[in-house]
Amino acid sequence: MRPGAVEDTGGLKARVLADVAAKRGVLRFVERMQRDAEHDDFMVHGPAMITLSATAFPLRHLVAAYAAHPDFRPEWEPNEEEVRPDPRFDRPGRA
Asked: Which of 5, 60, 71, 87 is buried most, with the most CB atoms less than 10 Å from its CB?
């Protein structure tokens, strides 16, 4: 990342650190959902499983920026095939 015309390197550093902190916050949330998904109570387990299934796709796209890192795992690659159109929303005459 290069600083903008008006932004100094200190501002760029602050923005990068804020971006990293935001992503870590998202990962903490996902870790919490992973723990909740193991819970015996369905009222805890069910919503966590739904949340995990909904967050997998966008998280893979976020981590794709780190694909060159030696710790990056192949299963983290974005998989466009995971998102299939839902036939319930296919209606004649709709684009």
From this structure: 60
